[in-house]
Amino acid sequence: MGGGKRFAVLLCAEDSDYIKKRYGGYYGVFVEMLAEEGETWDVFRVANGEFPDDKEIGDFDGFVITGSCNDAHGNDVWICRLIALLNKLDSLKKKVLGICFGHQILSRALGGKTGRAISGWDIGIRAIHFSSSSSKLFSSLKIPTTLSLIECHRDEVRELPPKAEVIARSEKTGVEMFRYADHMMGIQGHPEYTNDILLHLIDRLMMRGFIADSYADELKANLGKVEPDKDAWKKLCTSFLKGRL
Asked: How far does the signal peptide extend, from start to end residue (predicted)?
């Protein structure tokens, strides 16, 4: 099925012990969702300064930018290098899928603005509503116009890059998804997450003092009441990344 294509995960997060043990790291989570037979998948730990060489960029058919605990509006050295890389990938018209932090940094690299979400943290399962134009774009996938998706973020895209198009929104976030030309797409939520990953993250955020104990308890109590539409998101993400839309 893969036809010998080559893809890379640009890993922007540190793997927790739980994620390493359960999934082989976040790289393993993304490969489980996106990889198909015959493909080669590599990982570059960009948050640790590990980037693909300019010479090898052309060997890849597509890239996925992961979530991160860092701010996409920050100016850490690796974040600035990542922005430069994304501009190169844009000039080469490489397929790029940005998830959460990846969605935000992709927007920033293309000329958009990111920052703290006015409504604060968004954690849990959210209904994502596709625009009429994106419904036409995704019509071949035969998926509903509203899908449930796991969210875990406190930053957001505040202003879209020029020529980019909002293709999905939610009650809390105006830019849940955007598309730039035919080769770049951002998703604010986490199609790769499972409920157990979210539960693990809630505990980590609580222990680090990012969210209050009472809020964490409330989130845990609501977890499992609605299931994310993982199969539909997998179909959408793989179809975009492999050029099947």
From this structure: none
- Relative to beta strand 122-130, strand 146-153 is antiparallel
Look at residue 1 in the predicted model and tell me its pLDDT. Answer: 44
What 3-state DSSP class applies to 177? strand
Q: What is the CATH number of the domain that holds 197?
A: 3.40.50.880
Band of residue 4 on the pLDDT scale cut at 50, 70, 90: confident
Angle among Cα 159, 165, 170 to the nearest 5 degrees reads: 75
Q: What are phi and psi of 106, to 5 degrees?
A: -65, -45
- Please state the domain count of the chain: 1
Alpha-carbon distances, residue 44 vs 41, 47, 52, 64, 101 (angstroms): 10, 9, 7, 10, 16
Contacts of 115 (CB under 8 A, 6+ apart): 73, 155, 156, 158
Q: Cβ(94)–Cβ(59) under 8 Å?
A: no
Q: Check if the beta carbon of residue 66 is closer than 8 Å to that of residue 30.
A: yes
Determine the structural domain holding residue 184 and report its residue range.
6-242
pLDDT of residue 245: 83
Q: How confident is the model at residue 133 (pLDDT cuts 50, 70, 90)?
A: confident
17 occurs within a structural domain? yes
* 1 in any annotated domain: no
End-to-end alpha carbon distance in the chain: 16
Assigned domain for 141 exists: yes
Active-site residue list: 100, 190, 192
Has residue 236 been placed in a domain? Answer: yes
